[in-house]
Every structure is written in C-alpha cells, then in structure tokens.
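User: Teach me something about this protein's shape.
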Amino acid sequence: MSNCQYEDRYVAFIDILGFKNLIERSDGVSPEVAIEELVRALEVPHEVDLKGIILGRIGDISASRHSLTAFSDCVAVSTIATEQGLMNLLFHVRAILFRLLRLEFLTRGGIAIGSVYHQDGKILGPAMLEAYRLEHRVAIYPRVVLGSTVLEAGLAAAAPVDLIFGLMVNRCEDGLYMVDSLWALKMAAESEIGFVGEWGELVCRIRRFLANEESRLGLNPEKSKELSYVRWYRKHFEDATDRSWIDEIGAPFPK
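Assistant: First, the predicted structure itself:
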C-alpha cells in the first residue's frame, strides 16, 4: 500500500435517480429489466473502448487510463487530467446517461478535476468530493454539470478538442454547462427523415415514461421537488426532439 498516492484526474460522479425501483425491476422470475442491461449501461462505450481512436493532435483518446467504480445508486468514472482524458470521460458519461434513459431512468451528477485516488474499485480524494458536491448541491435537475475548471479547460483547448467539447456540452438557462446526453436524438430531429423505426419507438416510450412520472408525482404533495425535476427534464427532452422547424421551412424538403 506504500505506493498509494493522489494524482490529477477528471472525475465524474453520477447518481441514478430512482435506483431502488430500477433494482426492483431487475429482480424476480420475469424481470422487466435484465441485469445484463444494467451492467451494459455502465460499460465503457464502444467508441472509447476501441484502441487507436485518433483525435487530431491529441492522439488516441483511449490511452487515458480510464477507471470506473459502481456502488449502490452511484457511478464514478475518472481519467487522467489531459485533453485525451477529458474527451474519453465525456464520451463515456454521455453514453451512460443515454443508456440509462433508454431503461427509463434519469441521472444527475457532476464533473470535476483535481487530486484523486482511483484504483481497484476504490476512489477517494478532493476531486471526488467536488464532483459529489456538484451533483448534490449544484446540478439540482437531472443533468451532469461541469465544474468551472473543467469548463475552462474544454473551452480554452485548441482544435479539435474545443470544437468537439462544444458539441458534447450544453449551456443551460441558469448559466451552468451540462453533458449533452441527447445528442443522438437531436441529430435525428434535425435530419430529413426524423424519428423512424427504433428511434420513433424510443422517443414515444421516453415521452410516455416522463408523462407517467409527472402524473404519478403530481398526485403526491410531498413529491413536489421530484415533480419539478421531471418537469424540467421533460421540457429539455421536448426541446431536443422538436421538429416544428420543418413546418417553418416549408417541408417537404426540396428534391
């Protein structure tokens, strides 16, 4: 144990909201959610796990000493404090959030940078505490927010990191920046064909899930805080999947 020491790393702390219900749905003779789905949601995404993912001048983003620890209703992911590490972390966090949304669960979290020890499933240090603080006291709504130092690093990076960083985060109305977990749905919303096949079914299912959650929480006066969270995310989801612009340009598209 004498070699244990802190090192500078990017750290993401993610809280799975409604985790007790998620576990209940994965238990029993005929579980609604398979355990394999839960494990797969937390895995390193394919685009990060591959070796030799070259991103311009920074090289292979998979060479960023990626670590993950899952415990109870929380997930912690960390990478080395480099541009490679930042890109790797954002790819992974974005994938986790979207995968859990597909399972009809919302998430909240924070991303920090600083001293941390993260090895063999154990994680501790000032950066971990800061990521937790961002999740617990700053994020408020179902979103993963970036700490100010992380944001500054991404915005100040040279191309292509700054450009990709700008595509992977969103500026919220309150001035905070969050990971853009709905990027795939936004791309579909902005395409000519829109939501077809599996994408259409997914959007309808998530809309139904959010509407049901709003109705369920609205029946309980003690759940007003949770209700505000769901309403915030429902608006965020509708904005991301909005295709009303098609009418404004006079669809159908010209041949």
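Now, about its shape. The chain has a mean pLDDT of 85. The CA atoms of residues 89 and 162 lie 15 Å apart. If you'd like, I can walk through any region in more detail.
User: That's plenty for now, thanks!
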